[in-house]
Amino acid sequence: MAKLPTVTSPLPRDLQQFVQRVREALDSGGPDAVVTARQLIAAGVVGSSTSGGITPIGGTIETPRAPSGLTASGALASIIVSWNGPQYKGHAYTEIWAHTSDLIGDAVLVGMTAGNNFAHTLGAAATRYYWVRNVNQNGVVSAFNATNGTQGSTGEDPAYLLTVLTDEITATQLASTLGTRIDLIDAADTVVGSVNERVKIERLARQSSDSTINSAISSEESARQSADAATTSQVNNAISQTQNNAAAVISEQTTRADADAATTSQVNNAISQTQNNAAAVISEQTTRADADAATASQLNGVVSETQTNSAAISSEITARTTATSAVAAQLVGMEATVNNNTAALATELTTRADEDSSVAAQSTGLSAVVSGNTAAIGAESTARSDADSANAAQTTVISSTVNNAQAAIATEATTRATNDTANASQITTLQSSVGGNTASISTQQTAINGLEAQYTVKIDNNGHLSGFGLASNTATSGDVFSEFMVSADRFSIVDPDQPWWNVTKITSGYTSYTKHIHVSQSDWNSYTYVSGDKLVLQSHPTTSGDNKEYAIQGKTTFAGAYFIEVLGATTSEPATFASSAGSARALLKKATTARTPFVVTTSSSTINGVTVPAGVFMDTAMIADATITNAKIGSLTADKITASLLNTVDFYGNTIAGSTIYLGGTITYNTDSDGNNIGIQSVADPKVAMASTGATFAVDAFTIDNPGGTDATPFSVANNVVSIDSALIADGTISNAKIGNTIQSSSYTAGSAGWKIDKTGDAEFNDATFRGTLDVGGSSGSRLTISSTKIEVYDGSTLRVKIGDLS
Fold it and tell me: Between the CA atoms of 44, 48, 49 and 52, what dihedral angle is there, to the nearest 10 degrees?
């Protein structure tokens, strides 16, 4: 700013003092000095406009507008919050607010950013509601984007959920069943439920039954004969009676022969009765033969009755042959009744053969009734063959009923073969019903023509269906296609190397702190203790159990028994786990046991207070090629990433390459037929656009953070005017320049070196060279001109002095 001249003309004293104070205020420095627009421009506080005025650096600071387009996308441990860029001048930053519920009044500030993305790191299984608002460079805050929050959730930790699922799976009865050794086949006949025990029981029952029958069907024969030309017969009667007691034996034999046929028959009856008790044995045999056929039949009956108790055995056997066929049949029935209790056995055997076919059939039925409780076994077998086909079928039904509880097993097996086809199928159904609850299992196996096979298992638990199936089919082209399908709420694979042990009891040991789990010698021998191993005790499937887990301390023997030492068991627990062998189970959980490789859950479930969503949980996966719609990834290491859309909060690296790079703006996407974004179509009004043809910046100012920690704005662009705070230019071309103070060479030294041109017009040059004409003029019109040949001095328009070329 130019110095104000001193006032020399006469003025009133008070006015002169006022003018002097104004001069001092304008010319002096210090905090009380008056600042001019030129000084503000030079200091970079404001910029100059094309009209000569001043404008704020970066243009006008507008009132901030509320953000729009807020979204919250969950990653594995973070929620990515995004919104549209600010559409006003003077934007400083955006505040991000969040809360665990949709209550804006309780939201707290969780972050600030100058961009339009924010990553909120929370960890797995977290949910937040978000709001954002803008703040301008003057600190003025806009309204929130909305009253209702935008919800976002992080993904579940798959490793943790897989641990929860693994513990749940290994503790289930299914895992216990699959892991239990099948030892009932080779076990001794003293082991309850073993095959040998059941064979022993059957053998003893048969011996008792045979002894009873032999003593019941003994008979006494007598002879009586009368004859004529073609008939003989014999009848014997023996009867005894004492008061209300009677006994009788009747025997009759008959033979008859003529020119066309021969017949023989025999009837034996033995009857005894004492008051209300009676017993009878009936036996009838008949044979007949003629020119076309031969028939033989036998009927046996044994009846015993004591008051309301009765027992009966009936047997009927028939055989018949003709020139073209043969038929044999046997029917056996046995029944015993005591009060309201009944047991019955019925067996029917039939065979038939003719010139074209043969048939064999067997039907067996057993039933027992005790006070309304029923048990029954029914079996039917049929075999049939002819010149073109062969069929075999077997159906077995086992059922028992006690009050409103029912259980049944039905098995149906069928085979059929012809010249062109061969089919085999088997269906087994198990069902139990108690009250209104019913559970059933159906197993079906089918094989057709050597080209198709299917195996399915279905479980219906009160209408909740599950199961699995395996099928293989051969197409007409000869290609074989197979598939395996599972219908279940959860599907998993577990480590089979987790032994289950029979636990006999829990007993006190050598110390008051360690208890001992009694196991078999084979289990004891198979176990090698490793630090960190644990034992999970479970009760028998028919009783309730608490699945307690104990730390294993080792193993020992005493009193000829084998024990696993554990911590935490109490002497009261043998009441929970009965002392009979097999009443409890123990699962060895090895410290080094591998995690379940994968688990599939089709519905959400809660396990020990942890909510496990539906999905596929994998411990470790190696995928050669995968298509994933949405992925939440905690950490990603990749050799190459190719993406059509990339939305990120933080992006860094050595090189960024692309045909065009945009920052901010309104994006229009290309979409597929389902409305999914598959790429960027265009970007309108971007803040920054960089392409091979150039770069466009729509920003308020460029700010540089100096190493000293202070921000500086070296230049700004406003109203098509570039304002530069300070610049060092090695080589530059300027069409027009307006200098506010001075322009000088970097080597300028007053009176000795360089050059300087002051804003007042004063100039100083050292060793200057001029070419052409130097015209130095004044406002009066007088001037001095210097050329290479002469010097001329004008007084107004009159030439006063001329030196050099005088022509």
Answer: 170
Number of H helices, E strands in the chain: 6, 55
Predicted pLDDT of residue 507: 58
CA distance 425 to 445: 5
Weakest-pLDDT range from 181-185, 267-271, 377-381: 181-185
* 133 belongs to a structural domain: yes
Q: For residues 712 and 98, give the distance between their C-alpha atoms in angstroms, rounded to a whole number.
A: 33
Q: Are the C-beta atoms of residues 104 and 147 closer than 8 Å to each other? A: yes
pLDDT of residue 66: 94
The residues, ordered by sequence, that sit 6+ positions from 171 with a Cβ below 8 Å of its Cβ are 536, 538, 547, 587
619-632, pLDDT tens digit by residue? Answer: 777 877 777 777 77
User: Are the C-beta atoms of residues 418 and 392 closer than 8 Å to each other?
Assistant: no
Residue 173 backbone dihedrals phi, psi, to 5 degrees = -65, -30
Which pLDDT band, with edges at 50, 70 and 90, does 707 fall under? low
Distances (CA, A) of 438 to 393, 404, 407, 446, 468: 28, 11, 10, 26, 20
Same domain, 81 and 15: no
In a domain, residue 577? The reply is no
Query: In this structure, are 20 and 84 located in the same domain?
Result: no
Look at residue 360 in the predicted model and tell me its pLDDT: 87
Q: Is residue 357 part of a domain?
A: no
Average pLDDT over every residue of 165-176:
60
Clarify whether residues 14 and 75 are in a common domain: no
* pLDDT confidence tier of residue 514, bands split at 50, 70 and 90: low
End residue of a domain, out of 130, 155, 180: 155
* Overall domain count for the chain: 2
DSSP string, 461-509: ETTEEEEEEEEEEE-TTS-EEEEEEEESSEEE---S---EEEE--EEE-
Cβ count within 10 A of residue 621 = 9
Q: CATH number of the domain at 98, please.
A: 2.60.40.10
Q: How many CA atoms lie within 13 A of 399 on its CB side?
A: 15
Rounded to whole angstroms, how far apart are CA atoms 488 and 465? 8
Q: Where are the alpha helices (DSSP H) in 340-398?
A: none
CA distance 552 to 535: 7
Q: CA end-to-end span of the chain, whole Å? A: 48
Domain containing 144 equals 71-155
- Amino acid sitting at position 682: S
Q: Is the pTM value of this prediction over 0.85?
A: no
- φ/ψ bin of 474: left (φ > 0), alpha (ψ from -120 to 50), beta (otherwise): beta
In a domain, 658, yes or no: no
Last residue in a domain, options 121, 138, 155: 155
Tokens of 487: 């219908």
pLDDT band at 216 (very low <50, low <70, confident <90, very high): very low
Contact between 726 and 740 under an 8 Å Cβ cutoff? The reply is: no
Q: Which of 391, 331, 325 is nearest to 352 (CA)?
A: 325
pLDDT greater at residue 506 or residue 86: 86
Tokens standing for residue 441:
């299992």
Ranges 419-423, 595-599, 675-679, most confident: 419-423
CB within 8 Å of 5: residues ≥ 6 apart: none
Beta-strand runs (E) in 177-260: 226-227, 231-242, 245-257
What is the largest distance, in Å, between two alpha-carbon atoms of the chain?
198
Helix residue ranges per DSSP H, 279-334? none
DSSP code at position 88:
S
